[in-house]
User: Fold these one by one.
Assistant:
Number 1:
Amino acid sequence: MFFLAQIHGFVIHSSIRNLQKTQRSDHHLHVSSSSTDVETLTNNLAKLKKVISREYITFFDPMETQYYANDVTFDDPMTSLSGVQSYKNNVDMLASRTLLGKILFQDAGIVLHNISGGLVNDDGSIQDIVTRWTLKMTFKILPWCPTARFTGISVYKVVKDTTAAGVSIVKQQDYWDSINILPNSGGAYQTVDKGKAVNDFIGQISPGGFTAKEAAPELPYQLLRRGDGYEVRMYPSHTGLKLPYKRRDEGFGSLGAFTKGMSPLGPAIMDVQADDVSDKYMMWPLTYAKPGEKEAPIPKDAVEKAGEGQWRTMKVVTVPQSVVAVREFTDASMEPVVRKADRELRALLDRDGLKASQNSEDLVRFAQYDAIFSMGRRRGEVWIELAEDGHPWN
């Protein structure tokens, strides 16, 4: 979860497997093994998970303090807090509900991707509750107004008690995907030195250099992970205009002529087959599914033109919602650069326990955001779609 600026909370003691094992504190009350008590406890834990979900949606406005022990503790890679009031004060600051928060931040928000755990074991003990989330905040106090983004998990240690809620959160530990994932562990987490967290944070808010102009507004996505060397994103269903090409400048020219008067999106997405003999394809996104929509709108003007006359090689395609791993590169999108980035991304996915979709190695997919021949720091990316069972954000 978060709590940066005191900023962000929570350190995991060992691997995710240990986090989800039963833990009982010294003051954990004995849980009766009777079916009635287990059912009551199960219902109370289900309510608690709904409370946690609701707090994420509202950014803790209000924070339901009756579900937290007075001496609850919080730890993350950068800081430690103790006491429910300290927790509430920190969240209120991040959400700009305090004077200091109004000075420092804007547009802070947290997205809950999933919540798990909180089950009652056979011996009556309670499994930890684990959430996956994305946090962002903009530092308006800095002239360039940088936005810092964090993804990771929060682990809640919960005990049975005699309050009206029947259960209390006594400890929360957070860690970040960017620094706390243990390499070659299948995605387990470990504690790291706080200096590493500080460097990660400063790296995000430091001013950038001169960047190349974007060719078009970017296709929106939901950030699922900001990992070490890569990101994982969920893209909505979208339609695009696709054509085979030999030279990228010619592909850009043809698509630009076709979409004149339309509003294409970025990036330009290229597929190059691994055999280096098959056709290469370029696609420009045109429309996308808005929240609440399952499929992207069909651009009728594009459908009417594509496949006819001078546009005979073009077609409108629909891309379903997908989870994509991405690695950025800043050199020009030459073949050696792109293929190297693709190999590096595959190694990173294997390191962190993520699985590429079947047959993904048959092609190299890369994206170009900047206008062709533009000056400045370029933004290119290689993309690898993840298998449905190859990531934890289902």
Number 2:
Amino acid sequence: MDPTIFASTFTGMVIVAIIFAVPILAVIATMAIILAVVNRRHKERMKMIEQGMMPPPPRKQKGNYYGLMITGAIFFAFGLALVASELASRGNDFKGGFMFAFIGLAMLACFAIIRAARKNEPADKSDLTSPPPPPLPPQP
């Protein structure tokens, strides 16, 4: 059957709609979860302010850079696998393999640079001590 004819049938339209609906719904669900978490934190802070308590300042979070290492290693391995498969099949198209391999190498280089920079940073003294407890609400 010709793919253009199949896509115009009802079954083909349903299959195409399902294929595109899954990633769209996943993005919408992720955004809804993030919005709910942010909204809950905001309501908690506002309730503390209404009760006369001082909410703690938001903590500065340092990003975890190990995701770069993992992603870079995966891309590099995938690129090398593509290059090896092209060599084994005696093909002459290395573009895909080299592209993934170089993306992986770039991510691994970013990981190494960030790791070296973080080692040279002075230790943050505010993280070692716990913040003072919030003041008690006024007593009537």
Number 3:
Amino acid sequence: MDRDGDIPSGYQRERHLMTTPLRIVLPGLGAVSTTLMAGVMLSRKGLSRPIGAVTEYGDVDGTPIRDLVTSLDDIRFAAWDPFGEDALTVARNSNVLSDADLAPIADELAAVTPMTAAFDERWVQALEGVTHVKTGTWMEQAEELIEDIDAFRAAGERVVMVWCGSTEAYRPPSAAHFSLADFERALKEHDPTIAPSQVYAYAALRAGIPYANGAPNISVDIPALLELAERQSVPICGKDFKTGQTLIKTVLAPALRARKLGIRGWFSTNILGNRDGLVLDHPDNFRSKEVTKLGVLEELLEPESQPDLYGNIDHAVRINYYPPRGDEKEGWDNIDLFGWLDYPMQIKVNFLCRDSILAAPIVLDLARLLDLAARHGEAGPQDWLGFYFKSPMERSDGHIEHDLFRQETILLEKIRSFMVSTA
């Protein structure tokens, strides 16, 4: 026992913390968030399985990762959303899960009602009929978000925030983003260059809770908020969940590089009919997504080291809003490559995937692993979580790793280090 007799130390202290509730707070109560909630609720009732979650099915040296993180039984949820529908209504409208799956957890989902959101239609112009929003300056809204967070922690809950809201319009950083002092001044002045996701990130860091950015928004990836994360000793990570097409890209490109096969072009296109597809139909919002998707190949292939093979690639990415498809996204990739004696070849990939089914386990993993990092005193950018993102935060050496298998190695090595520190 500790000297004061309250809490065991080392590994036992970890177990004690893990049995207290972990609240996952989600800006954005849409298809991804409700699919996550439903999956956790069904799994802990034994009615389904949390497939796709590394924290459930992965292991390190034979030790299940689920033994190191908070149990599904101890996870709670809350959300903010600019629309006021409860999680059950949203889940039904999203058409991701069947009525048969939703029926056993209907009351539990219906109890999750969103808090009013920090929102600005200039950043997500495709959404109409938005009324469930906070008012006042950005700083006033940030203070309200902190009050929302503190209300949960009154019961002793640990809290992690994962952005599951819409993709915001692409805007490069402004003068307000380069120091914390300037950023806080801009919040008070309701500076239009500050995005809602940055208000959430600021509130999370001020409240001392970890933050993950699941969209391609710049969000926490600015000097002002990096400064705040370090000052508050809070772990952060992002950006943009690596779900379908980019997941495949980060597997195929390293294989082609390993075999030293050349690439002339890589054309990627998607059709998607959910709210995310609607938002991305606007060119300003699509630009945010395009930036994260286009950066992957250059980092993976390192064209400067093999200019003959990868120095002149035509790389294009398209996303098309197609309402009949709903959440059942379809991605096509055409890869024009060349091999021995410059003879041309092609690879074609057609991935019929489900956007929210792929994203939900990522949210669960990130929340659990950020909480694990926080319990071990980690602060600032968590580059070891790049496994989950299209555009990972830079590592300490300035390198951004995109190779999925290298990312997995880095992820497991970090988890191993946590195991050693609590042995």
Number 4:
Amino acid sequence: MFERDKKNEGGESVASLIDEDMRITGTVVSSGDIILAGGVEGEIQCRHLFVEDQAKLTGNINAEETVIAGVVSGEVSSGILRIKSTGNFDGILKTSGIEVEEGAIVNARFRKRRR
């Protein structure tokens, strides 16, 4: 019924979707990728996280790569962080690299990432 390592027919990993009708309170953990289209109040831990433009996350993110196109408030610990033009971020950043598109709203405090 549930597969540990979801892959499509081409052998590529498939992302887990938290769709626009879902609201989650708590911790979401995945060894793969997550697409957030709904809402989470809590923490997300995954490999790659994409926060879609209508999505909202209040809490913490721990990921190798994070793309924010929606609203995120909290602490982000990510190797690479990309904030799209529709993105709105307020919180603490711990990242090795950041890219912010024109039009994004960012209110951030930066903390040094431990190696």
